[in-house]
């Protein structure tokens, strides 16, 4: 069971979370609880570090910011003990959760289960583990970076062969689309790992991509549910192997992302290797290129369009101008359009059903929405459109694919 | 070098403290810095624990409250690195500072020096150690209790055979008496361990008794100085072996304590073993009895007077009434007087000079102050008097023993 920062923001909320743990213990389960820092604590600690040292040593950063989770772990163990549930806290180095030495973005190497298993054998019912942290081969404290607590939870579930991994958060599950944009959005009871991965990377903020990847690799049943609503066995959304989903949806959800910019290189000299000449300097500059479209070539010249996150536009322009100045590429003009957005439909059933793309394009066309760029994967179709049409597109696609119906 | 909570209360103050460390590094010293939690942090963490669990598990309490020092240690290391001083932080378990398993009041068992010494050999100039914490034989985090950071500093100085142990605090040294009570109070350049011990246990809040005891046992030269004043080699007060003090003062200081209550058992049946019958139940009830006076016996009965901290009066009354009810002791009445205070003169020269007690009693008598109880040790004389005379007594004694003159 993993509780995020808003679920443990105060000692009262920790008590509420502990009650949910108590319910599982009463059912006979031994439980490993992974906790985040109390909401706001990590930002406070990061603030101290940034005040102290703009170019900080990541090892010291990790030693400082990991404190937030340690505090919650101790408080959660105390709360469970108050409820007569035998519990104790574990900091990363005590487990030990062994990681690589890449401080602030370490990867989990191993979770030996001996120490915690022995304590379960001695009567402990709940191991409360500080999320987001581990220990390097050098004996220094590491942190796992973004989404680290979700990843910790999934890794523990895999290491201990847990029956389920429940992620408690401030939303009550995964929806067919963003309920703030489309009031017909419906909570999904189940979703396949691959679909969740596409939705996570497309901007649905429920779970971090990394934790879903890990769950898929080790086939950990993930349940996403709210710590603020009544609990039941059917609550939330189960993220699981597609084989555990009876009737696969052709389309399971519509995702959107505002954080997209479109960049077009106008009149590029079209020659073999031109794509590499453009995208190598972008990659070296740390630009995350998402979609790419090359126009048909006329008289040896073409237009090349790609998308990247909005805050990387400056970096992309700089890299491309430098490549032009050094003669590596040749183009007439560079046009950035930050007034766009990405809308995607995702569904594992697309693998066996055809016509989804055609239907998506027709729906958008009927609404008068012009498509600027298209990309597809086996279970996803994404389009770049003007930002002003985002809500309209999401709602129209949600209707057209009947997503409000279970 | 040890920096207390007010000396590291903000990132700015940490920077100021780091500059002082930098000065010592520039002189060629390798430095071990012991840090407390930023002022207020420990109270915040203790507050969380008390909200969570009134009868808390001390192991979890320790895991939570030790976080404060870890945060400061990381921030101090980062600040030193910003100043181009090679530094790293050490949490108690990383050193490892090995303690007993008495959580929240653990005692230091050993400080292996290998890990930190090896890093000094590799070019590290400053080891920043989180104070107040260690690791138990079971691998759990322990804390050392009150004054734990001072004790950590002295223990490290002893283990590493340090040239000096500088305790930075919010006062600039040890004074002949409390400057808030007596404006003629003078800062002492040097004071002997034994004198400091008497002053510490008598209510001078500069250093905790425990750290002075440890310094005396291992002959660690302790310097107390302010982190808010200009630094010089002669700053502060050096607490050292009496052999390093050229001219020992007959009287070095006048201490006072408001936290005293006088209790009198009236008309106790005087028989062999009566003192044990009275003080054993008090000790079992956790009452810290300080001074004891027994009146001369008349007709087989006597009065017995003792002092204890004000907040233990209720506990003492309860224990004595219980002993009376069970027939273990027999007395006519029990009178508590919380309107008293203790004033003491301390000086290592008393060992060889006589007449200090006589002079003290005459000074108080000349001021019309009645003495209620007297105790003495080899280097101290303490009296219990009415609280309203406290300032007058301190000032008169300070004058009479010429303490304003160096």
From TrEMBL, chains A, B:
GO CC annotations on file: cytosol
Chain sites annotated for binding ATP: 2-5, 169-170, 175, 180, 205-206
Source domain of life: Bacteria
GO molecular function: aspartate kinase activity; ATP binding
Pathway in which the depicted protein is active: Amino-acid biosynthesis; L-methionine biosynthesis via de novo pathway; L-homoserine from L-aspartate: step 1/3; Amino-acid biosynthesis; L-lysine biosynthesis via DAP pathway; (S)-tetrahydrodipicolinate from L-aspartate: step 1/4; Amino-acid biosynthesis; L-threonine biosynthesis; L-threonine from L-aspartate: step 1/5
Residues annotated to bind substrate: 42, 69
One GO biological process term: threonine biosynthetic process
InterPro entries, per database record: AceGlu_kinase-like_sf, ACT-like_dom_sf, ACT_Aspartokinase, ACT_dom, AKii-LysC-BS, Asp/Glu/Uridylate_kinase, Asp_kin_monofn, Asp_kinase
UniProt-listed Enzyme Commission number(s): 2.7.2.4
Protein name per its UniProtKB record: Aspartokinase
Annotated source species: Salipiger profundus
